[in-house]
Amino acid sequence: MKKLRNLVGGAWQDSRCDEWLDLVNPATEDVIARFPAGSPSDVDDAVAAAATAQTEWAALPVAERVARIHAWADLIADNADELAELERQEMGKPAGIGRAFIDSAVAGLKAAAQQANSYPFEDTVAHPDGAKTRILRTPLGATAVITPWNFPVAMVLGALGPLLAAGNTVVVKPSERSPYSTARLVELLSLPAGVVNLVLGDARAGVPLAEHEQIQLVHFTGSVSAGRKVGAAAGERLRRTVLELGGKDPVVIDADVDPVATAKAVAFGAFVNTGQICTSMERIFVHRDIAVPFVEALVAEAGNYPSGSALGPLVDARQRNVVHGHVEDAVARGACLRTGGSVPKGSGFFYPATVLTDVDDSMLIMNEETFGPVAPVAVVCSFEEGLERAARSRYGLAATVYTGDAAHADAAARIPAGVVWVNQWQGGGPERLYEPAGDSGLGATGAQAAYDAATRPASVHIAAPVLP
Ligand code: NAD
Q1: What's the CA gap between 18 and 168, in Å, rounded?
Q2: Is residue 244 flagged as an active site residue?
Q3: Are the beta carbons of 180 and 155 closer than 8 angstroms?
Q4: How confident is the model at residue 267 (pLDDT cuts 50, 70, 90)?
Q5: 164: which of 30, 96, 347, 380 is 20 to 30 A away, CA to CA?
Q6: CA–CA separation, 446 vs 206, rounded Å?
Q7: Nearest-CA residue for atom 13 of ligand 1
Q8: What is the pTM of this model?
Q9: Angstrom distance (rounded) from CA 12 to CA 197
Q10: The CATH classification of domain 249-422, taken from the options 3.90.740.10, 3.40.309.10, 3.30.390.50, 3.40.190.10
Q11: CA angle centred on 76, ends 74 and 78, rounded to 5°
Q12: Do residues 284 and 425 touch, judged by C-beta distance below 8 A?
């Protein structure tokens, strides 16, 4: 049985806690690895290593740091199939999908690191009286990256680029539900010892890491409830956080689009990765003029996501209970189950692609994050009504609008969300600058904002000297 260990200052180290957790393959329910539950002492060791390594790492020229990160990215790319296979074993993601997301995360890591070469780490403003102000943006020091289970490799890589390229060092704490691929990711490290460290475990590692006195920024991706605690702990210490939290993303479908092609796009947005994406389509508002053909096509599309191949299992029994609980609540309150909606027999935490209609905004399925392969459809009388109901949520991560009307496309921006996609789910490149709205997070990311978060600006004002 593989036993995972912590990476501290470039050396593999046994945990100082006695408790071990099992990593279970959600398709077979077999235990595939064991790893430590986590402890404050493990965190202390990893943070000390990160703090020690930071001075030398920050002293390297920016271009050198970027080149080192690119070299590591190339190694990851060379091993992408193996990482995708580990993700398949630990959280059920079909290997083809895992590979595609890892490829895009590697490209994202490279692009984000590359931005360091043009980031203004130092600016000088000249004044008419001969004085000048130097604006210096320096790295924060040792930082923490805490990740969820649904994209183990991509979530880590997504956070690391700007933090590392800006000259910070990092302690990574992956999810206790999928730590295996992250452990392999850091095994491939080609950066100097201590620049990236790994601490395994559940909240027993996450809490002391988020609360650690020497951690200058916590980049947290996960649930709203844990994000609140991380934010509160950071506030108490007056340290920074970037919080990327949950969502309940709406889709608004206008009367003038092709219902069949849109249903295909919506099925992908609702079912890919078994619905376990923070920006999965979780509330669908379709105009009444095309509702009938749209729903028919969506139900037919659900048949293209058979469990075991296109649709992996949910990550564990707890997650499946949440998903099924939302479906049962909706049906009990009058929703119509058009396909799916039952827990299959046999091993593995599978759940079928499910379509519900006649849903209303009082149901859990329209309010709480489901994180499963469920497409709940509400029919609206106008595009305006769709926009208005889409905006009615405590979450505000992303939203998607399908319309052929240019004025309606412009109006989509009224949905309060970090990103609004029009006619293409997940569109846009690294220039995408956003901050989640509502309970979906805190702190702008993307483009230059990630470097602003990873550095602290200070100004030095130099006036003309008073000479004798
Ligand atoms: P989670 O909040 O349970 O756990 C996330 C990580 O935080 C894990 O590593 C966990 O061990 C750690 N943790 C838990 N409690 C902690 C605490 N008090 N202090 C410090 N660390 C703590 O989330 P999850 O169930 O693993 O992931 C699913 C959630 O993540 C969903 O809500 C999803 O929407 C969200 N998510 C958001 C994004 C985004 O970019 N906004 C991306 C992916 C997933």
Answers
A1: 31
A2: yes
A3: no
A4: very high
A5: 96
A6: 24
A7: 203
A8: 0.97
A9: 10
A10: 3.40.309.10
A11: 70
A12: no
